[in-house]
Write a structure and sequence with these properties.
It comes from Arenibacterium halophilum. This is SDR family oxidoreductase. Pfam families: adh_short_C2 (PF13561). The chain is an alpha/beta fold. It folds into two domains: about 210 residues, Rossmann fold; about 35 residues, no CATH class. The protein contains eight helices and seven strands. A seven-stranded parallel β-sheet has the order 3-2-1-4-5-6-7, with helices on both faces. The longest helix is centred in the middle third of the chain and has 29 residues. The chain is globular. The N terminus is likely disordered. Bound molecules: NADP nicotinamide-adenine-dinucleotide phosphate. The site of NADP nicotinamide-adenine-dinucleotide phosphate has 29 residues, from helix 1, helix 4 and helix 6.
Length: about 270
């Protein structure tokens, strides 16, 4: 666990909490987490970034500092391990003295038919995305209550639209919503909201497009176009489409919004 080279500050003299708001972002080394970190940095948050890849986190920390973050700290951790979320929260509190926003974004569920997926794959999908979210909320809760802060949990449109090839991710995403709504109803709770991304261009979507291309004997471009047409969307989303929603939900403009679920999918979800 370390501190971003780009941001040498820690708690203020006398052990006082930092004067600017602090956001923890999980899965911040790339993809949506990186975009969320940059967006919150440009909104004036100090950022506490966590994922496994220490070098990638350092690079994101430097970019956050350039984007305006008053402090950018990194906490390399395998968040599927039960003790890690609390360890990260403790370390953030030691270094900054406050937590104002928590974005639970880390996730990596295996796609596939439930008849072929193993118990281990199911358990690891839940361990990283669902259990780490609960553990982060539990550890950060008193600090978020104190700051009247905000939690944003990143679920996914599979929460609402079950698919036979998404039998781990779908249930994990549904569980994220159920937990978030329940947590938001605790007396004195910070605001807790959920964002369900659709098909956003990150490494995760690239892997899907490449698998589709291989399965159907298509070029990457042709596979992407065929997938897009099958999904009935005009285009794939960009990480900034999700980070803008997260930034809004963390801001005071969203002060009356809690226990809510926001779909950002370019119209992919067929139901109402
Ligand atoms: N992209 C989409 O279209 C889409 C759609 C719906 C929902 N989502 C959800 O959005 C979230 C982010 O997706 P993404 O597309 O940005 O995925 P991504 O590009 O694959 O990034 C996943 C992030 O999670 C981190 N991570 C993976 N395993 C980890 C572990 N064991 N411990 C700590 N961190 C770990 C990765 O960092 P390290 O490898 O450095 O650990 C990385 O920062 C996920 O929860 C995903 O389910 C995405």
């Amino acid at each position: 666990m370390g501190q971003g080279r780009s941001a040498p500050q820690t708690r203020q003299p006398g052990g006082r909490a930092m004067s600017h708001p602090i956001a923890i972002i999980t899965g911040a080394s790339r993809g949506l987490g990186r975009a969320i970190a940059l967006d919150l940095a440009s909104a004036g948050y100090g950022v506490a970034l966590t994922a496994r890849d220490a070098a990638a986190l350092e690079a994101v920390a430097q970019d956050c500092t350039k984007a305006g973050a008053p402090v950018a700290l990194t906490y390399p951790a395998d968040l599927s391990q039960p003790g890690e979320p609390a360890r990260v929260v403790d370390e953030v509190m030691k270094q900054t003295g406050r937590i104002d926003a928590l974005v639970n974004n880390a996730g990596d569920t295996q796609r596939g038919d439930f008849l072929t997926l193993t118990d281990e794959q199911h358990l690891s999908g839940f361990a990283l995305k669902y259990h780490a979210t609960v553990r982060f909320c539990r550890a950060a809760w008193p600090h978020l209550e104190a700051s009247k802060g905000a939690v944003v949990n990143i679920s996914g449109i599979g929460a609402h639209t079950p698919e036979p090839e998404f039998t781990i991710g779908g249930p994990v995403n549904s569980a994220m919503i159920n937990f978030s709504k329940a947590a938001s109803k605790r007396p004195g709770a910070p605001r807790v909201n959920v964002v369900c991304p659709g098909h956003i261009e990150t490494d995760r979507l690239s892997r899907r497009i490449e698998a589709y291309a291989e399965k159907h004997g298509l070029s990457r471009e042709a596979a992407a176009e065929e997938m897009r047409a099958e999904l009935g969307i005009a285009q794939f989303g960009q990480p900034g489409d999700i980070s803008a929603m997260v930034r809004y939900l963390c801001s005071d403009q969203a002060r009356y919004i809690t226990g809510a679920v926001f779909t950002v999918d370019g119209g992919a979800t067929p139901g109402i």
